[in-house]
Automatic annotation (TrEMBL):
Segment forming the signal sequence: none
Chain ranges of the Amidohydrolase-related domain: 53-400
InterPro entries the UniProt entry points to: Amidohydro-rel, Metal-dep_hydrolase_composite, Metal_Hydrolase, Metallo-dep_Hydrolase, OTAase-like
UniProt entry keywords in alphabetical sequence: Hydrolase
GO MF annotation: an example: hydrolase activity, acting on carbon-nitrogen (but not peptide) bonds
UniProt KW Kinase keyword: no
Top-rank lineage group of the source organism: Bacteria
Name recorded for this polypeptide: Amidohydrolase family protein
């Protein structure tokens, strides 16, 4: 690997919120040193940033890299190689926006992650959960009332698989873990993109939820749940899940359970904003589009409740199809509730804790992966700086984007 020295930088400590004027040395893919006038290895590439603002590489904790259309029912019938080509495009665009690590919560597998590590795919480091688990008729069951044919083969398109009963969910969880899943995603309530359920429904019995949690814990992994209504959120937390996705209808009891359990919440506000604007243009069926309003209004209120209650809030987007280009708009939307520093923390240090990589990503500390972004404008003064083209993106010590 080449070495990189960035001189005259303003380095953000995301924990304190302070900038430090220093040089930063990247060697062997890691941050090696930072100081007033650091000495780089012989032959290192040196760049004078002239006071540029440097942040850790961003982390999106809720993506679907293979979600190349908003019509998730149709996606199951598409060629896997075609979907893979779309995923490659999506991953490259995410990297250009400064997201050097992403957590895929439905659809991506070992192949995508390994291809990125081996340099076959240009994109973020990929933390994947394989296919999400759904009960029959649940959020991951994309069959309409008249459809009976269903292909659950792991190489077929789609972000979920159907599993029912305690024995069924144990087997499904073990199978995803066998394939290398870093976490297990469970559909614990109804959702927007599913044709056969209602948003306010609760899904899976407590026995089924606890069985999935047991299997994940036994493998040293964790469970995250798709959940909107309070009943679904709270019973999942009582069953021992570590993370809640969306949580748009979160109540005070949910806040208490999240805090008491040390669990995480990953709001995905931008996806509802985008779906309302142009979801049907990207394949979202009209019936699903009509559900968006039910959760859109509650999203900011739930985020505000969580922030005031001291919940661990990580950054996520959940965008599909052509709407993935709006990924960075999540920063702007959250600014209605959160301070810029807290939003940046949610996309760095907090997300790193969620994916169990603290000190390795989401920080500019020596020994961490040399993932970082450079901006000309201070995002603490104007968070929308993160919605604009970045001056530079560095991943594992290599410049991967420089317009």
């Amino acid at each position: 690997m080449t070495s990189l020295v960035l001189r005259n930088a303003r380095l953000l400590d995301v924990e304190t919120g302070d900038y430090r004027e220093a040089d930063l040395v990247c060697a062997d893919g890691l941050i090696a040193e930072s100081g007033g006038r650091a000495t780089g290895p012989a032959g290192a590439t040196e760049i004078d940033l002239r006071g540029g603002y440097v942040l850790p590489g961003l982390i999106d904790a809720h993506v679907h890299v293979a979600g190349i259309t908003a019509d998730t029912t149709a996606l199951r019938g598409w060629s896997p190689s075609y979907i893979a080509a779309g995923a490659v495009r999506n991953m490259g665009a995410m990297l250009d926006r400064g997201f050097t690590t992403v957590r895929d919560v439905g659809g991506a597998d070992y192949g995508f992650a390994a291809a990125q590590v081996d340099g076959l795919i240009r994109g973020p480091r990929l933390i994947f959960g394989g296919k999400a688990l759904s009960q029959t008729g649940g959020h991951g069951d994309k069959r309409t009332a008249g459809v009976r044919v269903y292909d659950d083969h792991p190489f077929c398109g789609g972000s979920s698989r159907i599993a029912d009963g305690v024995d069924g969910v144990r087997l499904a969880a073990r199978d995803e873990l066998r394939r290398g899943a870093h976490h297990i995603k469970v559909m614990a309530s109804g959702g927007v993109a599913s044709p056969a359920d209602h948003i306010d429904s609760t899904q899976y019995s407590m026995d089924e939820l606890r069985a999935i949690v047991d299997e994940a814990n036994a493998a040293g992994r964790y469970v995250t749940v798709h959940a909107y209504p309070p009943a679904a959120i709270n019973r999942a937390l009582e069953a021992g899940v570590r993370c809640v996705e969306h949580g748009n209808l979160l109540d005070d009891e949910g806040v208490r359970l999240l805090v008491d359990n040390g669990a995480f919440l990953v709001p995905t506000l931008v996806t509802y904003w985008a779906l309302q604007r142009e979801g049907m243009d990207h394949g979202l069926p009209k019936g699903s589009w009509e559900k968006v309003a039910q959760v859109f209004e509650g999203g900011l209120g739930a985020l505000d409740r969580a922030v005031r209650g001291g919940v661990n809030v990580a950054f996520g987007t959940d965008l599909l199809g052509g709407m993935q280009r709006y990924q960075s708009e999540e920063f702007r939307i959250r600014a209605e509730v959160q301070r810029p520093l807290d939003i940046i923390r949610s996309a760095t240090a907090v997300a790193a804790d969620l994916v169990r990589m603290p000190g390795r990503i989401g920080t500019l500390s020596p020994g961490a992966h040399a993932d970082l972004i450079v901006l000309d404008t201070d995002p603490l003064a104007d968070i929308t700086a993160l919605t604009k083209p970045l001056r530079m993106v560095v991943q594992a010590g290599e410049i991967v984007h420089q317009p």
